[in-house]
Amino acid sequence: MKLYELTISEASKGLQEKKFSSSELTSACLERIRAVEPKLHAFVTLTEEQALEQAQKADFLLGSGEVRPLLGIPISIKDNFCTSGIRTTASSNVLRNFVPPYDATVVRLITEAGAVSLGKTNMDAFAHGSSTETSDFGASRNPWNIERLPGGSSGGAAVSVAADEAIAAVGSETAGSIRQPAGWCGVVGLKPTYGRVSRYGLIAMASSLDSPGPITKSVEDAALMLEVLAGHDSMDATSSPLPTKPYRKLLKEKRENVTIGISDDYFEGVDPEIVTAVQKALREFERLGHTVKQIKLFDPQYAIAVYTIIQRSEVSSNLARYDGIRYGFGRDAFGEEAQRRIMLGTYSLSAGYYDAYYAKAQKVRTLIVEDFANAFEEVDVVIGPTSPSTALPVGSSKNHPMFGEVSDALLEPSSIAGLPGISICCGFSKELLPIGMQVIGPYFMEDLILNVANQYEQVTEWSNRKPDL
Amino acid sequence: MEFDIEHVAKLANLPLDEKHLEILGKQLTETLLYIDRLNEIPTEKVEPTSQVTGLTNVTRDDTVSASLPQEAAVENAPATHNGYIVVDAILEEER
What we know:
The complex is a heterodimer.
Chain A: H1 8-16, H2 22-40, E1 43-46, H3 48-63, E2 74-78, H4 105-112, E3 116-121, H5 155-162, E4 168-173, H6 179-185, E5 188-191, E6 211-216, H7 219-229, H8 247-252, E7 259-263, H9 272-287, E8 291-295, H10 300-318, H11 336-349, H12 355-378, E9 381-385, H13 403-407, H14 412-417, E10 421-428, E11 434-440, H15 446-459
Parallel strand pairs in A: 2-3, 2-4, 7-8, 7-9
Antiparallel strand pairs in A: 1-3, 4-6, 5-6, 5-10, 9-11, 10-11
Chain B: H1 5-11, H2 18-35, H3 70-74, E1 80-81, E2 84-85
Antiparallel strand pairs in B: 1-2
């Protein structure tokens, strides 16, 4: 096994046991990046020098017996997290020269945990999309088939992990942006409860939805990353003061007799290969002693409309700050997708229309929140496909003004409600593309969905497969 | 579904030419038609949700703490003068 193929847990063990150094591990990742990056374009900015310096420092600390959760582990960071002294563009021309004077909280946290930062990953510009095709610096490619999209907006993040360029990645999700690319690239993507992970220093998309989270090679790694990332932050007023949990330790206490809810609407219009794969996974859960129960959730088709209004309204408000006066370039530098979203959001928030659109959407949001609350009276978790299709061909998002919203239909309801969700691989299509399955849980029950996902991962082999690059 | 696309562009402060106004106008109509389906759901007695985890009135202690140094705060601005950001004049002198 090559060093760059390791998970965080495996690499940490090797580092602790002095089988290899962080410098060796980091160099292996950098070499891998050099080899596959021309095909994949996962990164917008590489910070090779800084990575090697951080690795050296980590080796010194490891030598002195220091133990930290990510000590010496090479990680990629989505380019919408501010990194002090390192260009942060959100893959938009508006910010192509922006060098933040401070670190986002999640960047500070992984740095304090000892991580080595490899660089900043590509995304849809300002996270507007589910393909990375709206990136002003060109799309990323899916490592399982480079004629396919990786999904998005955390597309570069998912590619960096799936292609073993990084051991793990930090991404962000507004509605689908972690889970969908993780699903399309065959890796693990965890979207925590809204407010569980701080948004401070995250370039805002839709502030009432944005949730940073990890993309990893295993469920255990996702638990480990969440332990580092989660927690209250006085710099983000919407971050939750509730205590965090020992997520990795809780994985070991196998949750028994979990009641899994499934709703027919989440299987409607979904690629039959995906339906079959998820149904097989559900049989696996039954074999593990869990119960599958039919429930009826709010039709996800309405969630698309709610999400479109809320997200575009908040986008228009958040993107109003870009004027080229304090930093970045002016408003003529916005790409078409940003223009489209700003226009709809401006209209829906404008005098006379607020009640018909934004207020209406926020009311239906209440109904979606209540619907999930009722469901969780009956079941412990909800399981469904992550996306209606496997990775679509390059070019699919063009000329489709609602591409992202429609391809994330199954992820939007839980995002609107602010619930935690995890996507894991549950099989491969005939074209050898990964199939994603999501587990959704009640507020702040990340430990439960991680536990359920981990049980499945332990009895299946999907996560061991690697793309042929 | 009536709107004045030029007015929306003005509110949005986006410099758009005729061609783009037309394209965006069409797409705006398309999207509005799509989201119109929300009207199928009755919401007369429903309260809106803007914060999902139930936090209200979050304030911090009124204490002074370290902040960005002035040079760092303005280092990304394209034009500065004596630590200030230079902007175009927006007021005209009275004649």
